[in-house]
Design a protein that fits this description.
117 residues, 7-stranded mixed sheet
Length: 117
C-alpha cells in the first residue's frame, strides 16, 4: 500500500510563505500525475494545481502566480511553494499522486495551513 505523507503546514501571517512537502513510499520517477488540493473551512475540497504527464502545471485562478509545484525524484517528494499567502488560503492541503492512468490516485492525510490577517 502506497503512503503519502505531507508536512510543512502551520500558522503564518498574511504575506508570508510556506513550503509543503509530500513524500511517497514509492518511487515518483515515472508518475502519471501529481497535484495539490485544499479544503477551506466549511467548504468542499478544491484543486490548487495539477500536473499531468509531461504537460505544464495547471494552477487554479486563485493562485495567481503565488504558488509553484515541483518535485524531487531522488527524495520521492512533491513540493508546493506558497508565497504571498492571505487568509483565504487557510485550509487543509492534500497531495494527490497517480502512478498510472488506469490506477486509482493516492491521497495524503493533509496538512493544515492557517493564515492570520
Amino acid at each position: 500500500q502506497v503512503q503519502l505523507v505531507e508536512s510543512g503546514g502551520g500558522l503564518v501571517q498574511a504575506g508570508g510563505s510556506l513550503r509543503l512537502s509530500c513524500t511517497a513510499s514509492r518511487s515518483i520517477f515515472s508518475i502519471y500525475s501529481m497535484g495539490w488540493y485544499r479544503q477551506p473551512p466549511g467548504k468542499q475540497r478544491e484543486l490548487v494545481v495539477t500536473v499531468i504527464d509531461d504537460s505544464p502545471a495547471s494552477y487554479a485562478d486563485f493562485v495567481k502566480r503565488r504558488f509553484v509545484i515541483s518535485r524531487d525524484n531522488v527524495k520521492n517528494t512533491v513540493y508546493l511553494q506558497m508565497n504571498s499567502l492571505n487568509p483565504e488560503d487557510t485550509g487543509r492541503y492534500y497531495c494527490r499522486i497517480r502512478w498510472h492512468l488506469n490506477e486509482d490516485p493516492y491521497w495524503g492525510q493533509g496538512t493544515q495551513v492557517t493564515v492570520s490577517s
